[in-house]
Design goal:
Elements: E1 5-11, E2 14-21, E3 26-30, E4 32-37, H1 46-51, E5 57-61, H2 62-67, H3 69-78, H4 80-84, E6 89-93, H5 96-102, H6 109-119, E7 123-124, H7 137-155, E8 163-164, H8 174-186, E9 192-194, H9 198-202, H10 206-219, E10 226-228, H11 237-243, E11 247-250, H12 252-258, E12 261-264, E13 267-270, H13 282-286, H14 289-294, H15 297-325, H16 328-336, H17 340-351, H18 353-359, H19 378-386, E14 394-399, E15 411-416, E16 420-422, H20 442-457, E17 462-467, H21 473-476, E18 484-485, H22 488-498
Parallel strand pairs: 4-5, 4-11, 5-6, 7-8, 9-10, 10-11, 14-15, 14-17, 17-18
Antiparallel strand pairs: 1-2, 2-3, 12-13, 15-16
Length: 499
C-alpha cells in the first residue's frame, strides 16, 4: 500500500509526522506511543486510554486471541474495536513474542494475517523470527532469511485496507540490519518495526540500539514509519526519537506497576523507596506514596499503572514540542545525563551525524551549547562543510576578539567555539546566534580548530593569522604550520598599553 506516512517537521532525524491508517479512518500523529493491551487482563479500559491519556493508537496480541476459544469467538463476532471499546487505530502482533519465548507457535503468516484482517485489525503483523542479540552470525543470517521469506508471503495475502508491518531483524549485526531494512522497504508493506531489541533495552545497551537504528534508517526511505518494538520506558523516548523512530509500544506501564515500580524520565523508582512523588500527574497530585502502600495490591497497581501512562504520554508531548521548536538535541542531552549508558547511546547517535545533518533544518530558534556533545551536533558539522564555499585571498585575521590586533587585514573573521571561523556578516544567522558558555570544554575548542583547518585547506592562496586568546596550547598546536599564531602574551601587552 505505502504512501501512508508524511513528515511535517524534522529536528535532526527526529520528526513530527502523520501516519494515515485507512481501515480505522484515522490519522495518528507521530511520534506516538501504543499502549499494550492484554486481551485477557486489561489494567485499564482501552476507552480510558483514549479519553484520559490521548492514545490515538494501541496494540494487542492477535495470537492470544487466535488461541483463546472464548475470546476468539467473541472478537470474530464483535470485531476488535467493539470488543475492546477503542475507537482509534489498533495494531496487532502475530505471536512472534511467544515464538521467541517458547520456541514455536502453531500459526503461519497467511493464517495470522487473515485472522487479523477478519477481526478488524488496522495494522497487522506477519510471523517474523525475533533473533536475539549476540547470536552466531550463521543463526542471524538463517533466521533473517526466514523473516524475509515471510514478508514476501505477506505481500501476497489479500488484507484489503489493513496496513501490514515489515519487521526488521538481524540481531546485533548492523550490516544484516541494513540489508533487512533495504529488503523490507523493497516490499509493498507499510510500517517498519525494528525487532528483538528488548534484551538490549533491558540491559541498558543503548549504544547498541543506536547502532542498530542507524543501520536500519540508512536502509529505509524517508517515507518509512519506524516502530521500535518493545521500547516502552519514557527515559529513552527522546533518544529513540532523535534516532529517527516514530512508534513505540509500552507494556512497561502495566508490568512495572505490577512490581510496584514507578516510572520517571530519569529511570525507575520502587514505591517502597519513595517519600514523595516527583510528578504532577493526577495520581501523584491526589495520593502520597504512603497512601498507595496502605492500599490493597490491585488498587495500588492500578494507580501506579495510571501514573506510568501519564509520565509516558507526558514525555511524548514534551518531545513533540521540542521537535516543533527545534530543541530536541537539548532535550536529549538533558535525558542522556540521567544514566551513563544513555550517554553512550547519545554519543553513538552522534557518530552518525552525517545522517542526522541530512534532515536537520538549516535554521531553528536557538542553539544551546550545554555539553561536550554539543560540539558534535549536525549544526556544527554543517557549518564546517559550508566553509568550503568561501573563496578567500589576501591576509585574513581569525580572532576571538575582532579588535585584538591593530594592523590592517583584508578580512577579519570571528571565531567562536565550537563552530570555528565565520564572516561577521553571519553573526546574526543561525546557528552562530548560539547561546554558549564563557568557559568551554576542550572539545569545543577542538571542533572550532577543525573548522579553521578546513577553511585554510580550501583557501591555499590566502594568508591566515589567528588571534585565539586563552585557547588550550595543545589545540593551537593542531593548526596548520603556515598559520601565524598571535600569542596570548602579545595580546596581554597590547591590553596593558591601551590601559
Amino acid at each position: 500500500m505505502r504512501d501512508v506516512f508524511e513528515v511535517r517537521t524534522y529536528d535532526g532525524a527526529g520528526r513530527l509526522g502523520e501516519l494515515t491508517v485507512p481501515r480505522a479512518d484515522v490519522t495518528v500523529e507521530t511520534p506516538a506511543l501504543l499502549p499494550v493491551v492484554n486481551p485477557h487482563v486489561q489494567t485499564l479500559e482501552p476507552s480510558r486510554l483514549q479519553s484520559e491519556f490521548g492514545a490515538e493508537i494501541m496494540i494487542t496480541n492477535s495470537y492470544i486471541l487466535h488461541g483463546s476459544g472464548d475470546l476468539r469467538d467473541t472478537v470474530l463476532e464483535e470485531g476488535l474495536h467493539d470488543m475492546l471499546g477503542f475507537d482509534g487505530a489498533i495494531m496487532t502482533d502475530s505471536g512472534s513474542f511467544q515464538l521467541a519465548e517458547y520456541g514455536e507457535i502453531d500459526v503461519t503468516t497467511p493464517e495470522i494475517l487473515q485472522f487479523q484482517h477478519d477481526i478488524g485489525s488496522d495494522i497487522g503483523t506477519p510471523v517474523d523470527i525475533p533473533t536475539p542479540p549476540d547470536v552466531e552470525r550463521e543463526q542471524a543470517e538463517s533466521e533473517l532469511n526466514t523473516t524475509q521469506e515471510r514478508l514476501e508471503i505477506a505481500e501476497g495475502v489479500d488484507v484489503g485496507e489493513m496496513l501490514v508491518n515489515a519487521p526488521i531483524q538481524g540481531s546485533t549485526y548492523t550490516d544484516l540490519r541494513r540489508e533487512a531494512a533495504e529488503h523490507a522497504y523493497s516490499t509493498s508493506l507499510d510500517v517498519f518495526p525494528i525487532g528483538a531489541v528488548v534484551p538490549l533495552l533491558n540491559s541498558y545497551r543503548y549504544a547498541d540500539v543506536a547502532e542498530i537504528v542507524d543501520s536500519v534508517k540508512r536502509g529505509l526511505g524517508g517515507d518509512a514509519p519506524v516502530h521500535l518494538f518493545g521500547a516502552g520506558h519514557p527515559m529513552m523516548f527522546a533518544l529513540a526519537v532523535a534516532m529517527g523512530c516514530d512508534l513505540f509500544d509500552s507494556a512497561a506501564y502495566a508490568l512495572y506497576a505490577r512490581d510496584e515500580r514507578y516510572l520517571t524520565v530519569r529511570g525507575t523508582e520502587h514505591l517502597e523507596d519513595l517519600e514523595y512523588f516527583p510528578c504532577h500527574c493526577p495520581i501523584c497530585s491526589d495520593y502520597t506514596p504512603a497512601e498507595l502502600r496502605k492500599m490493597d495490591d490491585q488498587a495500588a497497581e492500578d494507580l501506579l499503572a495510571e501514573h506510568n501512562l501519564h509520565v509516558s504520554f507526558g514525555e511524548m508531548r514534551t518531545i513533540k514540542q521540542a521537535i516543533k521548536e527545534g530543541s530536541l538535541f537539548e532535550l536529549v542531552e538533558q535525558r542522556a545525563r540521567n544514566h551513563p549508558t544513555m550517554l553512550d547511546g547519545y554519543r553513538t547517535l552522534l557518530d552518525g551525524v552525517d545522517r542526522l545533518e541530512a534532515s536537520d533544518p538549516a535554521s531553528k530558534d536557538a542553539f544551546f551549547h550545554v555539553s561536550t556533545e554539543s560540539s558534535r551536533r549536525p549544526e556544527v558539522v554543517r557549518h564546517h562543510e559550508r566553509l568550503d564555499r568561501f573563496d578567500l585571498d589576501g591576509e585574513i585575521l581569525l580572532a576571538t576578539d575582532r579588535g585584538a590586533l591593530d594592523r590592517e587585514f583584508d578580512e577579519r573573521w570571528a571565531v567562536t567555539p565550537p563552530f570555528g571561523p565565520y564572516p561577521p556578516a553571519l553573526s546574526e544567522a543561525y546557528p552562530l546566534t548560539a547561546e554558549v558558555p564563557e568557559r568551554f570544554e576542550r572539545q569545543a575548542y577542538a571542533a572550532a580548530a577543525e573548522g579553521i583547518r578546513r577553511l585554510v585547506a580550501v583557501n591555499p592562496d590566502a594568508e591566515f593569522t589567528v588571534a585565539l586568546w586563552d585557547w588550550p596550547d595543545d589545540v593551537l598546536e593542531t593548526l596548520p604550520d603556515d598559520i601565524r599564531v598571535e600569542s596570548t602574551d602579545s595580546y596581554s601587552e597590547k591590553t596593558e598599553e591601551s590601559v
